[in-house]
Amino acid sequence: MRRGTGNETGSFLFKKNKKKNPVLSHCSNKMAASVAVAGAQHLSSVSDLVPDWARQEVSTGTTIMAVEFDGGVVIGADSRTTTGAYIANRVTDKLTPIHDRIFCCRSGSAADTQAIADAVTYQLGFHSIELDEPPLVRTAANLFKEMCYRYREELMAGIIVAGWDKRRGGQVYTVPMGGMLVRQPVSVGGSGSSYVYGFVDSNYRSGMSKEECLRFVAEALTLAMERDGSSGGVARLAVITEEGLERRVILGNELPKFFSA
Amino acid sequence: MERHTTDSRVKGVSTGTTILAVKFRGGVLIGSDSRASIGGSYVASRVINKLIQVHDRIFCCIAGSLADAQAVTRAAKFQLSFHSVQMDSPPLVKAAASVLRELCYSNKEELQAGFITAGWDKKKGPQVYTVSLGGMLLSLPFTIGGSGSTYIYGYVDAKYKADMSREECLQFATNALALAMGRDNVSGGIIHLVVITEEGAEHIVIPGDKLPKFHDQ
């Protein structure tokens, strides 16, 4: 059973089979010595005094999305992190840089995805120095896949890797729970994604421009945030091209408006 | 609008399904896919009609356990025809929805079926009602239901406009159903649509090869 204080970044919760966290040992990194052993694992006996949300794992029940266009990618995510019914962070940044032109969008357990992203950032940085050139998006995606697949029983992470490299331009790779890896021109993930599959299927066209992609992602995120209780807050977008990175935030009241029953 | 996530635990044949009903200018449109599955891995029927006529201008569509839904609609049909004879006038759509709601609510422990009722009556014109699993009754301009509806919430929220024309509404419903059928493995087959207006009810069938195609097909 998972215990923990729930809110620390980089703190680890003991997994179901009580092994030491695999990502930690895989990396032999400095990392959180704050492995939240939570020696005070007597929470169950004080269940009345501890609120519900303090006993739940922090999850980025979420909506994440990435689209390829000619010259780069547009990625987007909502900004809500929940512990049960409590919104632990309403302005989360789920778009995590892995390298200069490679980002990942995180969904699932906040702790797991942060740990994996940190580990991959380290590995990719090292690899890039060895190569003496910027890494490929496909390499980053494969590193994610390796970790997510090897430790699939212990982890709960759905990740979209997107970026730009010289060999293949803008690319989006999705690594859902379980550790599959596939490249897709458009990919959605997280709990809110179920509600927008229809919208994405009907509205996506290949050959969209950067502005069209931005609008497409903003609209899809908005629709998902409207329907999914675990998604909400602001919409964070980023555009990655050869030139560099451009980040945008669309606040709640600036989101596109749709019909509401 | 409830998510019917219980379909895989429905014993026997289930209409893991996508159903919807939309009000437009002058009438309502009610539509569904045509797949009935057992346990999500065997398609018991690929052409069933989930649009049940409970009276001349009132139709309902079913989601959940097919057996439960058929039993409830049979009881509802009987009660409505009796009621209509007593009142000496066609029943109100709300009456039809209420009958279904009463049956669902009183038997909520045993039943596992949800309904969308749509129709036209002289008092209020075109109407759409939804009766959820536990027996809640709601009147709405449009509604979607069934397991496949999860995937099209975003699409219908984005595309629905009040007061559409009949053609726009047909296109909207066809697209929505096709998108849901494309993503939900327990929805599929052909599309059944019924357009109900003051004039009467018209049944339209869209076979598999005439379904709208989207970018990845």
Automatic annotation (TrEMBL), chain A:
The keyword Nucleus applies. SUPFAM superfamilies: N-terminal nucleophile aminohydrolases (Ntn hydrolases). Transmembrane segments: none annotated. GO terms for molecular function: threonine-type endopeptidase activity. PROSITE patterns: PROTEASOME_BETA_1, PROTEASOME_BETA_2. Keywords: Cytoplasm, Hydrolase, Immunity, Nucleus, Protease, Proteasome, Threonine protease, Zymogen. The 26S proteasome consists of a 20S proteasome core and two 19S regulatory subunits. The 20S proteasome core is composed of 28 subunits that are arranged in four stacked rings, resulting in a barrel-shaped structure. The two end rings are each formed by seven alpha subunits, and the two central rings are each formed by seven beta subunits. The catalytic chamber with the active sites is on the inside of the barrel. Component of the immunoproteasome, where it displaces the equivalent housekeeping subunit PSMB6. Belongs to the peptidase T1B family. This is Proteasome subunit beta. It comes from Scleropages formosus. The lineage of its organism: Eukaryota, Metazoa, Chordata, Craniata, Vertebrata. The gene is PSMB6.
UniProtKB/TrEMBL annotation, chain B:
The 26S proteasome consists of a 20S proteasome core and two 19S regulatory subunits. The 20S proteasome core is composed of 28 subunits that are arranged in four stacked rings, resulting in a barrel-shaped structure. The two end rings are each formed by seven alpha subunits, and the two central rings are each formed by seven beta subunits. The catalytic chamber with the active sites is on the inside of the barrel. Component of the proteasome complex. Belongs to the peptidase T1B family. One of its GO terms (molecular function) is threonine-type endopeptidase activity. Keywords: Cytoplasm, Hydrolase, Nucleus, Protease, Proteasome, Threonine protease. One of its GO terms (biological process) is proteolysis involved in protein catabolic process. It is found in: Cytoplasm; Nucleus. This is Proteasome subunit beta. The active site is at T17. One of its GO terms (cellular component) is nucleus. The keyword DNA repair does not apply. Component of the proteasome, a multicatalytic proteinase complex which is characterized by its ability to cleave peptides with Arg, Phe, Tyr, Leu, and Glu adjacent to the leaving group at neutral or slightly basic pH. The proteasome has an ATP-dependent proteolytic activity. The proteasome is a multicatalytic proteinase complex which is characterized by its ability to cleave peptides with Arg, Phe, Tyr, Leu, and Glu adjacent to the leaving group at neutral or slightly basic pH. The proteasome has an ATP-dependent proteolytic activity. This subunit is involved in antigen processing to generate class I binding peptides. It holds the Pfam family Proteasome. It catalyses: Cleavage of peptide bonds with very broad specificity.
